[in-house]
Write a structure and sequence with these properties.
With 382 residues, this protein is an alpha/beta fold. It has 16 helices and 13 strands.
């Protein structure tokens, strides 16, 4: 059986891609059953060809190259602002492109198609319908699930994989019957020895970490404001924000706030990091203040280091962070509530240890990549 996978966000960026959906796909392809009779293909274009050669081809995945119209290599927000461009895309570019993709699906005798996220399935979904091929769509975020385009995508998908219970709960009842919950997972064997065993001395700073690209929906500004309140009570603290700058306006807003409140000694922007273990190994509290999140891969990684997590009270995060069991939840717009949660964990070292251990146990049971890769393959092949 031949299975074609498309990831709309895959492109050459770093030696080790950390992006949630892209990283999850690579992990799946690494852990798939190499003894099965399935042939996996990766759909490439002008933008992701180098990415395929560097990250996907070494995993034994074949290539199906199709030249994309330039309009389809732009991100969706371009079309939200320009009605003419949107009409041009929908009425002329997409129909001819999907006919072309459908032709290639039949030519290569592809049996099943997998969209690694909604945008991927939106791009090639009509083609799978024309070619009468089964389409499986991953839903990896709660963003835009109620939009008309998302509903079209879910409607033409034969199967849907929700990466958390929270995402599943957001779906309409008419989509749930073809949806399976398979939790976002990581290879826990890479973290077997990563336990927090050292005893922290009183003069060491409390280290707080957030791993996310700087953007509006990751909501780091709320975390920065909370730290401003924390240092009024407890000055021996450091916040590390680890990720690329995806939104200049967000970064400028944070830098202005930091400068105005003299927080330069307390907040460090590390930029993108290929190895986040060195930060997690020293971390005391992990915070994920996002407005939108499928689940939060970095939360899983933090738990494997037995780090307590404070996360925003949104469906994806609530799927893994249980309030007062392995961490705390807070209103994503309420920086004072986040400040209170942080202070509780700073003061109570025993609670930090208990939450961290509980989080690690949960990950071993529910977010184990070896277990969940088999579930994904079985569901695709059913």
């Amino acid at each position: 059986m031949k299975i074609l996978i498309y990831d709309a966000y895959a492109k050459i960026r770093h030696d080790f891609p950390r992006g949630g959906s892209t990283r999850s796909l690579i992990d799946f392809l690494k852990m798939r059953d190499l003894n099965s009779q399935q042939e996996y293909y990766f759909l490439t274009n002008q933008m992701n060809k180098k990415y395929y050669l560097k990250h996907i081809q070494p995993l034994g995945i074949k290539e199906l190259y199709i030249k994309f119209p330039k309009a389809l290599l732009k991100y969706g927000k371009v079309y939200e602002k320009n009605l003419f461009s949107k009409l041009l895309l929908l009425l002329f570019i997409m129909p001819s492109f999907n006919l072309k993709v459908a032709f290639y699906l039949k030519k290569y005798k592809i049996d099943k198609v997998v969209g690694n996220e909604l945008r991927a399935s939106l791009t090639i979904g009509i083609a799978t319908f024309i070619a009468n091929k089964e389409l499986t769509t991953f839903i990896r975020s709660d963003y835009g699930l109620t939009s008309k385009m998302a509903k079209i995508c879910l409607g033409i998908s034969s199967k849907v994989i929700a990466i958390s219970e929270g995402i599943y709960d957001l779906l309409g009842e008419n989509y749930k019957n073809k949806t399976k919950i398979i939790n976002e997972s990581i290879d826990i064997d890479n973290f077997l020895d990563e336990r927090k065993t050292k005893i922290k001395s009183n003069d060491e700073p409390i280290k707080i970490v957030n791993i996310a690209n700087i953007s509006l929906y990751k909501n780091q500004i709320t975390l920065v404001k909370a730290i401003n309140e924390v240092i009024k009570d407890y000055r021996n603290v450091k916040l590390y924000i680890i990720g690329e700058n995806f939104d200049n306006n967000c970064k400028k807003e944070m830098l202005k706030f930091i400068n105005d409140n003299k927080l330069e000694d307390y907040i460090i922007f590390t930029g993108f990091q290929t190895d986040i273990k060195k930060y997690l190994s020293e971390c005391d509290i992990y915070v994920q203040p996002s407005f939108n999140e499928g689940l939060g891969r970095s939360i899983i990684e933090a738990y494997l280091f037995e780090i307590p997590v404070i996360g925003s009270d949104i469906p994806g995060i609530k799927s893994i962070v249980e309030n007062n069991v392995n961490g705390y939840l807070f209103d994503s717009k309420n920086y004072k509530q986040l400040y209170s949660r942080i202070m509780e964990l700073i003061i109570d070292n025993d609670k930090r240890l208990t939450f961290g251990k509980n989080g690690r146990e949960l990950v071993y049971e529910e977010f184990n990549l070896k277990k969940n890769v088999k579930k994904i393959e079985n569901f695709i092949l059913e």
